[in-house]
Design goal:
Elements: H1 12-18, H2 20-33, H3 40-53, E1 57-61, H4 64-74, E2 82-85, H5 92-99, E3 103-106, H6 118-127, E4 129-131, E5 137-139, E6 146-149, H7 161-171, E7 174-178, E8 186-189, E9 194-197, E10 204-208, E11 222-226, H8 229-239, E12 243-245, E13 248-249, H9 260-270, H10 273-291, E14 297-298, E15 306-307, E16 313-317, H11 320-332, H12 362-368, E17 371-374, H13 382-395, H14 401-404
Parallel strand pairs: 2-3, 2-6, 6-7, 7-10
Antiparallel strand pairs: 1-11, 4-5, 8-9, 8-15, 10-11, 12-13, 14-16, 16-17
Helix pairs in contact: 2-9, 3-9, 4-5, 4-8, 6-7, 10-13
C-alpha cells in the first residue's frame, strides 16, 4: 500500500474496503455452519467459475501451483517425461512440471507479446526431437518422451493458441494452459471461429487466486478448468489424498483442497470481475495513449485476436539502462513499479543443471532487461496515470500527451 499521495503498484486496501461487508458475511456464514472444508461454498464457486470460463468443470485447489501440478498429473504426465514451456515466467510454472515428475524444456518467446513463439515450438519439435515408436516425439539428447506443452498467458494476454494447439495435435502433445494471470482474458480462435476464454482452449488450465490477481482470494487459492470429466474427477482425487470417498484411497494424493472461506470470498469477487477487467482495459488504453509517442518506450502490444485483462501493465524500454533510470525516477516521485520477470528461468541458480547459458533464448533474455511493470488495478485513476506517464515523458524529454494534444 502506498502512503502520503504515493501511487501503489496495486491497491488492494481500497478494493477490499469497498467489499468489506460482503466478505465479512462469508466468514460469518462459515463460523455459523462450521463449513470450513468443501461443501456448498466450494461447489458453488466451482460451478460459477466453470460457467465464467466457458468450461464444463472447475476443481478448486489450494494454489495456482497445485492447479498446474495436478492438471499435468491428471493429464497423464509421468516421471521421465519432458514438458515444454517458456523461460520468462514465474518459477511456479516449472516447479509444477518438476513436481509432476517431468523435466521442463524451454522455447523462446515473441518479443511483442512476451508469449510462447509457435514457430520456436515447431522448430524445437522438428529439430530437437525424433518420432518414437508410439508416434510421439522423443527428445534426441535425453531420450525422454515429450508429452505436453504449457503456454503461459503472461500478464493477462493470451498466447497465440491456434498454432500451438495445431502443433500439439500433430505431435500428440497435451496442452495445459497456465492461465494464472488471465482470469477472463479472451482469444479469437480461427479454428473454432469464435472467441474463447482463457482456460477453455487446452485439455485443462491452471488458475491462481493469489491476492494480487485479477480475481484474488484473501490468501492462497487456485483452480483447474477442463471440459474432460475424467480429468476433473482425477484432480478431485489428487487434491484430497487420493480419496474416492472418505478413507477409500485409490491413489496417493495431496492435501491440496480449496478452503471454503476462500471459495466464498472468490464467489463474492467473481460478480465484480467483468467490471474490474473492463476498468483495467480502459486504464491500459489511457496508458497507451499517453505513452504512444514517447520514443524509446513501447506499450504492450494488443493484437486484434486477443482481449487482454492486464493483470500487469508492462512496458518495454529501448535499453536496460533506460528501464533502470525510469524505475528510479518513478520511485523518487512516489510511484511503485515492479519487474516481471528480471531473470529468465534458464539463468536462475535453480536451473543451472540444464546448462543453458546466456544466449540460449535471446528474445526472452533481451526483454527481461528492458521491461517495467507500471501501476495497474481497477482502483487506479486516470489522474494517477497522467502523473506516471508525465514523469516518464519528462525523463525522456518528451512533452506529456495532454500538452502534445
Amino acid at each position: 500500500m502506498a502512503n502520503n499521495g504515493d501511487i501503489a503498484f496495486l491497491d488492494l486496501v481500497t478494493l477490499h474496503r469497498e467489499l468489506e461487508e460482503e466478505l465479512a458475511g462469508v466468514f460469518r456464514s462459515a463460523l455459523r455452519t462450521a463449513g470450513f472444508i468443501g461443501g456448498p461454498m466450494v461447489e458453488g464457486f466451482e460451478n460459477d467459475f466453470a460457467r465464467f470460463c466457458g468450461t464444463k468443470h472447475c476443481v478448486g485447489v489450494a494454489s495456482g501451483t497445485d492447479a498446474l501440478r495436478f492438471a499435468l498429473m491428471a493429464a497423464g504426465v509421468q516421471a521421465g517425461d519432458m514438458v515444454i514451456t517458456v523461460p520468462n515466467t514465474f518459477i511456479a510454472t516449472t516447479e509444477a512440471i518438476s513436481q509432476a515428475g517431468a523435466q521442463p524444456a524451454f522455447v523462446d518467446i515473441i518479443e511483442s507479446t512476451c508469449n510462447m513463439d509457435p514457430e520456436k515450438l515447431r522448430e524445437y519439435l522438428q529439430t530437437r526431437c525424433e518420432t518414437g515408436r508410439s508416434g510421439k516425439p522423443i527428445h534426441r539428447e535425453t531420450g525422454r518422451p515429450v508429452t505436453a506443452v504449457v503456454p503461459v498467458h503472461l500478464y493477462g494476454r493470451p498466447a497465440d493458441m491456434d498454432p500451438i494447439v495445431e502443433l500439439a495435435e500433430k505431435y500428440g502433445l497435451i496442452v495445459i494452459e497456465d492461465a494464472c494471470q488471465a482470469h477472463g482474458a479472451e482469444y479469437y480462435s480461427e479454428r473454432a471461429k469464435c472467441w474463447k476464454k482463457a482456460g477453455s482452449i487446452g485439455a485443462a488450465a491452471a488458475f491462481s487466486f493469489y491476492p494480487g490477481k485479477n480475481l484474488g482470494a484473501c490468501g492462497e487459492a487456485g483452480a483447474v478448468t477442463t471440459n474432460d470429466e475424467a480429468m476433473a474427477q482425477k484432480i478431485r482425487m489428487i487434491r484430497d489424498h487420493g480419496q474416492t470417498r472418505k478413507y477409500h484411497h485409490d491413489i496417493e494424493g495431496y492435501n491440496g483442497r480449496l478452503d471454503a472461506i476462500q471459495a466464498g470470498i472468490l464467489s463474492v469477487k467473481l460478480k465484480y470481475l467483468p467490471d474490474w477487467n473492463e476498468a483495467r482495459r480502459e486504464l491500459a488504453a489511457h496508458y497507451g495513449e499517453n505513452l504512444a509517442n514517447i520514443r524509446g518506450i513501447f506499450p504492450p502490444f494488443e493484437a486484434a485476436s486477443v482481449k487482454p485483462v492486464y493483470h500487469l501493465y508492462v512496458i518495454h524500454t529501448e535499453l536496460p539502462a533506460q528501464r533502470d533510470s525510469i524505475q528510479a525516477l518513478l520511485a523518487e516521485g512516489g510511484v511503485q513499479t515492479g519487474l516481471h520477470y528480471p531473470i529468465p528461468l534458464h539463468l536462475q541458480k535453480s536451473y543451472r543443471w540444464m546448462n543453458l547459458g546466456p544466449g540460449s533464448f535471446p528474445v526472452a533474455e533481451s526483454v527481461a532487461g528492458r521491461l517495467l511493470s507500471l501501476p495497474m488495478g481497477p482502483t487506479l485513476t486516470q489522474s494517477q496515470i497522467e502523473r506516471v506517464t508525465g514523469l516518464i515523458a519528462a525523463f525522456m524529454n518528451v512533452p506529456p500527451a495532454r500538452a502534445r494534444g
